Description:
The protein has 315 residues and is mostly helical. It has 2 domains: 4-197, no CATH class; 223-313, NusB-like (N-utilizing Substance Protein B Homolog, Chain A, Orthogonal Bundle). Helices cover 65% and strands 0% of the residues. Helix 10 packs across helix 12 (245-260), helix 11 (224-235) packs across helix 12 (245-260) and helix 11 (224-235) crosses helix 14 (285-302). The longest helix has 41 residues, at 27-67. The chain is elongated, with a radius of gyration of 24 Å. The relative contact order is 0.12.
Amino acid sequence: MISRRLVRIKAMQTYYTFLQDSNSQNLDSLQRELEHSIEQSYSLFIHLHCLLINITDYAAERIEISKNKHFKSEADLNPNTKFIDNIIVNNLHTAVQIAKTLTDKTFSWSENSDFIKNLYLKITSSQYYIDYMNSNESSYKEDFEILKKIITKIILVEPLIDEIIEEHNIYWNDDLEFLSSNLIRNLKRHNAETIKSYKLPPIFKNQEDEDFAKKLIKTTALHSSNYDKLIQESLKKWELERIALIDRVLLHLALAEIMEFPNLPAKVSINEYIEISKFYSTDKSSLFINGVLDKIYLELKMSGKLNKSGLGLVE
């Protein structure tokens, strides 16, 4: 579930703090901090499931309130329950972690009643919701498509969600879009039968990804002085202090992958950190990082110091 791209981003954030005050942590605590950061991302992934449940719960409450009006309309007496009967949302509770999170006292979307109400009003005023409610079709595909639109067109662009996330958990700031995409992909894999026994995916797709996360930041911190030396030699006329700290962090992580992960193609690692720099550093950083890494990579390759085997040889 947690991709290597997100592991790299979490490693970047954790290692950045480490370089700012390297005396505050040892390698073990640095590793634990990265693991905690990844676990918190997974927690947000679970909470996004809960948000869909909270929205449909609010819709159900609105229907019950309408039924208890003194003067009832035809719509109050015979409400359209298609949305609250959504087969996907009604089966998310089967995942034990989701059911447990719904009762979590430390954080609940439903505590932000105005936020849930605002989302619901935006959903119900959208044309795709109106079309969904008026459709005679009843299928998993249709239920999935309405949730996909709610996530991408309502939740992800709602300004208040960023405030709620930032206030509750500093680890969630940059995760919302990525984890929402993961949620959509995970729901898409199911059908009307398999959703009845819905389970959350594991934190890591496989053991290799977990090992990658465990090794990356420790290896980077352990060899940081060597990476600084390589960077300094490639720059020649530049002082190391002139490099933005975030760029230095990305260079260190990339060099760790190039030099200490024999099964990872060097070009894949370089491209990954170039892409990350486009979101987390300056406009010119991607070109700078690309130039430095390409130069060091070629020098390592020509000198025979490039430790690559198997998949790592594929360029």
